[in-house]
User: Fold these one by one.
Assistant:
Number 1:
Amino acid sequence: MSLKLPKVIGHRGAAAYAPENTLESIHTAADMEVEWVELDVKLTKDEVPIIFHDDELDRTTNGSGRVAEKTYDEIRQFEAGSWYGESFTGIKIPTLEEAVDVLIERNLGLNLKIVPCHGREKETAEAALDILSQYWDDHTRLLISSFDPVSLETAQHMAPDWARGLLLAAEPQTNEMNPEWKNIADYLDVKTINLDTQIASRDVVDEVKELGYSPLIYTVNDPIEARKYQSWGVPSMFSDEPDIIIENLLTIH
Ligand code: G3P
């Protein structure tokens, strides 16, 4: 099945305009005529898949502590908007199911990024794919991505035909790409390699393409950078300001 990637994917919804990974952020992206959004999924203690990036609640909610140690009912007590702006006070952390409802209502494609808490790599992928398999029909507009090979392998076993993307960033120890990335990508049979801007050189992008993968780049908020990547043949990039990047890309695809 071929993947219909858009030129720009809204990062965590439209993270420059609304609190990341919330229903408001998804609606904001849809209002800007963004075609796809990227959202992060992880599990509560009682294994409810929620849309949330960090392992801890502190940065983006009024709660604190580890997500993996809170039940869904506890998570629901916190609000995830006031850290961003007063007008967003009271917003809740959405479940994956609630997010999927809005995505379908707003006709958006989805890059679901699996960000498992340590030790829950398989369970997180299983719970997320279980929800998606119940509600998501259009597999030309769905990409499952992760930094974690176990989560991607689980997705591969559960839904071999759904497109997978391997996320790559500079390794903290070496500041370079994992030297095993080609073997991992081959083993997991991914469609896309999602590169951090720090490692996305022209040579790396060319190599990714030569190996038959689509190179995607995150997170691109500068229109000049976006045009550079577009001229390298990058089909799609992630942005917190998707409206600005869309407006500044050439209509060449
Ligand atoms: O999926 C692209 C990007 O969101 C991955 O990195 O910074 O959000 O964890 P990050």
Number 2:
Amino acid sequence: MDRIAITGGARLNGEIPIGGAKNSAIKLMAASLLTDEPVRLTNMPRLADTRLLGRLMQRLGTQIVERDDGPDGQETTLHTPEVVSTIAPYDLVRQMRASFNVLGPLIARTGQAKVSLPGGCAIGARPVDLHLMALEALGARIDLHEGYVYAQAPRGLKGAEIEFPFSSVGATEHAMMAAALAEGTTVLRRAAQEPELDDLAECLNAMGAKIHRDPTANLPTIVIEGVGKLHGVTHRVVPDRIEMGTYAVAAAMAGGEVKLTGGRPEHIRPLIDALEEAGVTVNELNDGMVVARNGARLKPVNIETDVYPAFATDLQAQFMALMTMADGESVIKETVFENRFMHVAELRRFGADISVSGNEATVHGVEKLEGAPVMATDLRASVGLVIAALAAKGETVVDRVYHLDRGFERLEEKLSACGANVRRLKGDGPIED
Ligand code: EPZ
């Protein structure tokens, strides 16, 4: 199993390109099942998660062609002329819960699907009741047996009015994909507002769907007028706001000056505000931003995660790592997932002083961290450990790096190019520089 070794203390100076968003790319891939024509996705990240979903979709009948030197960089074309299987088995869904998102497109396109329930994960129980509620409202018959969802809609899906009890990214996306081909109009209330969702809507609209937000409604609302057929498209994946936010925090932690290119600062406004409050300089550009910190100690900042446009839960671990070295006490409140403090115990191994009560962590900043062997627990938690290691004295080895590989493309390369001392240790073998 690969590990990553980091010797802390080097400042970061240089440029980091920001790739396409993982959490958009995987939904766009699933959405390609809605048409029998090719869907070409550009600005595609190459990640363990996109590879895994690709493997599942190949079993369903999708032909996948990847190209790394397209006019807009890496691209993936997905083409499902015919759905040859409507089954998403446990062995694949368990490795990546977002594979569950093929359920809606499969029912919408073929009228049936058998998809494994994803189960919980390190950050919480993460039920899918709202996904199923939405599909039932659209007329699918849902039965649960032996860990699988059996869904049937032999006469097709029908538009419906659905009010979610709270905002869920996955359930909103799922309902949107299924409703795109339903008969009649669907209204989704308390719909999620994350940029990845708008990216999906934009792609579906370019495929012939009729989806718009209703800005006059009291609750965040999406209206979908079902169409009979969707066609192929070329679509550019929205830049990854979490990747950009992560490297912004890394630069703030290590000090120096880093230009992040290809990202959209307006998608991480609360993080930028928090960084500035901590004393970090952020200059926004048309296609990215420059993050700089020179000398002075960071000021403590309190944050509270919530659904978009609030502070992203996917940036919470990184920001907590940053606050471990602030000059004072900060309070970090997590409101989206019930168990997203797994990184606290690992951060303590660096000498961080953090106490947790319920969904609040109080971080007492320390003057120095010390490198330590630590373990990645989930994707964003692991990158929080990498951030701590960048400023820690001595060497840190992060174990279970496969978590990082799920969502950060060429992380060691991008950080090393800015002067960080980061290298991957392959399996149990020798160090690979
Ligand atoms: C998406 O997860 C992202 N994943 C997550 O990123 C991200 O943290 C999350 O949105 C919040 O922004 C993908 O896009 C693949 P939710 P999702 O449904 O869709 C509860 C990462 O690191 N809930 O908005 O699963 C749920 O348990 C990942 O890249 C139900 O109770 O998030 C959670 O507490 C991690 N029932 C809350 O809602 C449901 O049916 C919000 O979850 C669905 C969700």
